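so my prof wants the structure for this chain in the tokens format not the other one, which i didnt know existed until like an hour ago. anyway here's the sequence
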Amino acid sequence: MSLCIESNFDILLTIDKNIINQQNLTKHKLTIAVLNSLTSKLEELLLFLPSFKAQVNKFEKHKAYIIEK
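here's what i got, hopefully its the right format
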């Protein structure tokens, strides 16, 4: 996560559901989007893109979002 912050990322997209509990979101100007996937297979992750695209413009800094299919 520190590399994301140092590189001025706006959004961290991950499948790590525990990251929400492991990071202090108020400390960093970053949005975390977690794909609620059981696998990291590309075919599975691609199914989340329509939902992610529909929500991304509503994301706020310092918050985390769970993305469903």
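also thought this was worth mentioning. Helices lie at 2-6, 19-22, 42-45, 49-55.
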